[in-house]
TrEMBL record:
Organism placement in taxonomy: Bacteria, Bacillati, Bacillota, Clostridia, Lachnospirales
Subcellular location: Cell membrane
GO biological process, one term: amino acid transport
Sequence ranges assigned to domain ABC transmembrane type-1 in this UniProt record: 26-227
GO molecular function, one term: transmembrane transporter activity
Keyword Transmembrane helix tagged: yes
Name assigned to this protein: Polar amino acid ABC transporter, inner membrane subunit
Length: 266
């Protein structure tokens, strides 16, 4: 079957013949982005909580220096993965793991691993900022009733910090959907890689990548709307009544104190 000469005819031709390739690539892209973001969030929460553990002079010297060493290593991890492109990380990890350690990663495992640790580095700073944004008095109050740092984080700080960092979690997901295209350098058959194959078959680069651009937009826009709806659910209703049985809460506007001037007139 010959390629149509008009633009929209070529678009229809590509979709009819290579539609499954686009769908398969989009599915792989979403799988890597979602799983990588979820694992990255777990890594980020763990690193962020460790980075906010206070170091006091009264602590055991071994514990104090060990904690400083762990924080130093985690800071190196965060700075390296935030300061280098994911494409370079993909090449270094996928090929370097074989050369340096003799580990032959599968392409699929490498894709999930690279996106996860890259996202974890960004999320670590996001979580740390979210934790520090909470009023320190709440941490002091939790410690005053005997909570450990871990209990304070889980039960008091993180539920509040989570709402503050939800937009950044959504932003990381959208970034990962787009940035999975760099994994094509190690042979991951995601949306961008599939599009290159389709475009090269008939040299229809403009039409093929036009379709891909629309698919990327649909994926990111849909995820953005879903996450925005989730944020509103976490906020609760816009208007609410304060439920209380304490009559003192209703004294405002109900009790009128006598005016001294009125007493003098009488």
């Amino acid at each position: 079957m010959s390629l149509p000469s008009d633009f929209f005819g070529r678009i229809v031709f590509i979709l009819q013949n290579y539609g499954p390739s686009f769908l398969k690539g989009a599915g792989k892209t979403m799988a890597i982005a979602i799983v990588g973001t979820l694992i990255g969030c777990i890594i980020g929460f763990a690193v962020g909580i460790i980075q906010t553990i206070p170091v006091q002079k009264s602590d055991n010297p071994v514990k104090r220096y060990l904690l400083k060493l762990v924080k130093f290593i985690l800071n190196i991890y965060v700075e390296v993965f935030r300061g280098t492109p994911m494409m370079v990380q993909a090449m270094f990890i996928f090929y370097g793991s074989s050369v340096l350690f003799g580990i032959n990663m599968s392409i699929v495992f490498a894709a999930y691993f690279i996106v996860s640790i890259n996202t974890g580095a960004y999320m670590a700073e996001t979580v740390r900022g979210g934790i520090l944004s909470i009023d320190p008095g709440q941490t002091e109050g939790a410690k005053a009733i005997g909570m450990t740092h871990f209990q304070t984080m889980v039960n008091v700080i993180m539920p509040q910090a989570l709402r503050n960092i939800m937009p950044q979690i959504g932003n990381n997901l959208i970034i990962n959907i787009k940035d999975t295209c760099v994994l094509s350098v190690i042979g991951v058959v995601e949306l961008f890689y599939a599009t290159k194959g389709v475009a090269g078959a008939y040299y229809t680069y403009f039409e093929a990548f036009g379709i891909t651009m629309i698919i990327y937009f649909i994926l990111t826009f849909t995820c953005s709307r879903i996450l925005r709806h989730w944020e509103k659910k976490m906020d609760g209703p816009d208007s609410y009544d304060l439920a209380t049985t304490d009559t003192l809460a209703y004294t405002s506007g109900m009790v009128k104190f006598p005016d001294p001037k009125e007493k003098e007139d009488k």
